[in-house]
Design a protein that fits this description.
about 120 residues, 4-stranded mixed β-sheet, 3 helices
Length: about 120
């Protein structure tokens, strides 16, 4: 997790409770959440960690918890982030752990990413 992101949110929204901000290794977080919003973390992870990511998200979410966000749906870099991918690949990681509500082209992406993202909404099985 990113100290830069933590510092940024503290500066932009000083009233946001510090107790809700976590700085540490994602794979070592020991907590439970109703909702996790994904934005650019998955694509920053080396693809060999994606199965671990799906398992960890399943572990972190409470019963019927939701993972929602955006994943790239195009090939990108192979040697550095952001790493891309495709729906078929992502389904292989998430279907064992989640009910797939949405994994479809995002209709309201930022203009430079238009046509390159999937909107994802998954519920813990």
């Amino acid at each position: 997790m990113s100290k830069t992101a933590i510092d940024n949110i503290k500066k932009r929204i000083p009233e946001f409770p510090s107790s809700h901000l976590i700085l540490g290794d994602f794979f070592e977080v020991d907590d439970a959440f109703d909702l996790i919003i994904e934005q650019t973390f998955f694509c920053a992870l080396n693809p060999n960690l994606r199965e671990n990511y799906a398992q960890k998200m399943h572990q972190l979410l409470k019963v019927k918890g939701t993972l929602a966000g955006l994943f790239f749906s195009v090939p990108l870099y192979t040697d550095r982030p952001p790493f891309g991918g495709n729906k078929k690949e992502y389904l292989s990681y998430f279907q064992p752990y989640f009910k797939i509500h949405d994994m479809a082209p995002c209709y309201n992406s930022y203009s430079k990413r238009n046509g390159k993202e999937l909107f994802v909404k998954l519920t813990k099985k």
